[in-house]
Design a protein that fits this description.
The structure is a homodimer of 365-residue chains.
Chain A (H helix, E strand, L loop, with lengths): L2 E9 L3 H17 L4 E6 L4 H7 L5 H9 L2 E6 L14 H11 L4 E7 L12 H4 L3 E7 L7 E10 L2 E11 H16 L4 E6 L5 H17 L4 E6 H10 L6 E4 L1 H14 L7 E8 L6 E7 L16 H13 L4 H16 L2 E2 L9 E2 L2 H11 L1
The complex binds 3-isopropylmalic acid (2 copies).
One 3-isopropylmalic acid sits at the interface of chains B and A.
């Protein structure tokens, strides 16, 4: 059995708590002889700042580069609101994405039937919802230069951010979306603002070319990002795979996640290019939810998104699709049994702490 | 009685139809001696392209500069998908905003009780919703330079858009938001992405200063634009006035509008600075909905957003608040009577065409 190297980066807020439940699962997989994971742990975000005055240390970056997959909790919180921009908690996550070249962020927005009523949307609008947002993650306004604040004198400053996209960046994220659609409902919707942004014009042009040249059998639709956002609210089930840039992806995937009523349940995968020789790809897995500092340390956090993110790691990094399916089934079974953390509690269900939920899922497995 | 100069720019798609109903209202106000409007009409968007190969002619721009208010329909449609970027329909609207220096875009998102069930959101989430999004309209990534596509050779192109904000731009839109909040529920929520964008850092800093210095009695909250979008979907009633930049405002205001279930009903105002001498300000009023090419020319369009936008003109440009209230009341009365255009039709209501709806509102007045 091959040994897989994992780097666990719990981060801040509820990060360590939900990571604890993944650790429990990994330990069990190891001791039951189902898989062989070698885990190491590092600091990221506010936790790294508190220890080393950086958002991630060079040592932990080296470990991340060396790992087969990074399992990431969450970063940030009011405690670090005043730290210098360069070492703010989020910088650690952004550096991981950039240095590991994790250009493809997959964010499923799935409505768990048991939770359909937790959504602010009507049941009929989201019941059975199963879409994936494919977000470009290493380009656009997140990393473009110049990115500066200049003092103009007279009490005036000027802030500049730069959105940059090259053809190859759009092509490779397009391919990820089309490949994914082929295994799903065969439809890709590309979203940009070509009516205002030159990057939107190029995005639209390149997606159209990739489609025509390489994926003519997949349906491709184009939508302006603002009306795409509207359509997501109005009738999300019209989508299958949505592909969009880094900033629109940030907004649209959060909105899609919230629609489902299952925010504490949703995983994400950030993937790099497949290496031609080793056939491996760098990858980071993290829950869609944030660090939720208000409930941190109270045993209230829902570990399902984190466990489910680890499930994506099994599937995308370690070719253990069958085991991933079992993890998904265990989550569904525990939900069906009526166990609920505080975020998804409703009448007639049984309250569970972070640990109780993690243990119940493990027992189911 | 003062004479007010209006420029009507119906534009494309359903624009001319809904503008027709405003024209009917204006004619009646004139003939009944209630007000004195002098109207002129121009071409914008695809209509201007078809006539002059531009998105708005210099002649019509001059008229717009000279008018007391511009009443704008909608622009765009698949017919002009392939026209050169510089003369695409949207360019006409963007030029009007920029050259008239209409930096403040007010977009109310109100849920009409009669239409609460048209929303994809649960009734309790949106019933009674009444928020305003104040969107910066002449800065940011819409107008920043460089904005280019460059050929890099080898089949590669590079697209660049630039987000630029200066202190004064953030200050003045902040003031609009705080002034508005003072007349409402006294709360402003500022949204940006300070964890990723330098413009977000400056935006946050300047809003905080303006608040402290000039509006300490108004509540100010800051939210990251992605979680702000989430909160808008989850529980929109927590907001009163949201202030945000041009691109986030584009996304968030469309989403807010769609939440209400009243998209065909929502007006907007785009305002310039108040001139110290004349006490006048340049202004453009337009419905939030687009040109809806699929239903254009069929008498199906809902004219309420357009009429209500004219109502905003009465209020903000001509100091006729009482008359604007009457227009709002007439719209509410007609809805209460059960009359509905196709977009808001539900069981037990009476179908109306664009014209029938316009006439009914006028009769009510
Ligand atoms: C934490 C933050 C930098 C990040 C982003 O903006 O990408 C987060 O919102 C996300 O979506 O993963
Ligand atoms: C038509 C388009 C240029 C415009 C925008 O992006 O501002 C529209 O979406 C709007 O919100 O008014």
């Amino acid at each position: 059995m091959a040994t897989h190297k994992l780097l666990l980066l719990p981060g801040d807020g509820i990060g360590p708590e939900v990571m604890g439940e993944v650790k429990r699962l990994i330990d069990w997989l190891n001791s039951a002889g189902i898989a062989k994971f070698e885990t190491d742990t590092g600091l990221v975000g506010g936790a790294a700042f508190d220890a080393h005055k950086v958002s991630i240390s060079e040592g932990d970056m080296a470990k991340a580069m060396d790992a087969d997959a990074v399992i990431f909790g969450a970063v940030g919180g009011p405690k670090w609101d005043a730290v210098p921009y360069e070492v703010r908690p989020e910088a650690g996550l952004l550096r991981l994405r950039k240095d590991l070249a994790l250009f493809a962020n997959l964010r499923p927005a799935v409505c768990y039937p048991a939770l359909a009523d937790a959504s602010s949307l009507k049941r009929e609008a989201i019941e059975g919802l199963d879409i994936v947002i494919v977000r470009e993650l290493t380009g656009g306004v997140y990393f473009g230069e110049p990115k500066t604040i200049t003092d103009l004198g007279n009490g005036q400053k000027r802030a500049i951010d730069t959105q940059v996209y090259d053809t190859y960046e759009i092509e490779r994220i397009g391919r990820v979306a089309f490949e994914l659609a082929k295994k799903r409902k065969n439809k890709v919707t590309s979203m940009e603002k070509r009516n205002v942004m030159k990057s939107g014009v190029l995005w639209n042009e390149v997606m159209t070319q990739v489609h025509k040249r390489e994926y003519p059998d997949v349906t491709l639709e184009h939508q302006l990002a603002d009306s795409g956002g509207m359509m997501l609210v109005k009738w999300p089930k019209q989508f299958d795979v949505i592909v969009t840039d880094n900033l629109f992806g940030d907004m649209l995937s959060d909105i899609a996640a919230m629609l489902t009523g299952s925010l504490g349940m949703l995983p994400s995968a950030s993937l790099g290019e497949v290496d031609v020789k080793s056939k491996k790809r760098k990858a980071l897995y993290e829950p869609v939810h944030g660090s939720a500092p208000d409930i941190a340390g109270k045993g209230l956090a829902n570990p399902i998104a984190m466990i489910s993110s680890f499930g994506m790691a099994l599937r995308y990094s370690f070719d253990m699709g069958a085991l991933a399916d079992k993890v998904d089934a265990a989550i569904a079974a525990v939900l069906a049994s009526g166990l609920r953390t505080a975020d998804i509690k409703s009448e007639g269900t049984t309250a569970a702490s972070t640990t109780q939920m993690g243990e119940a899922i493990l027992k189911e497995l």
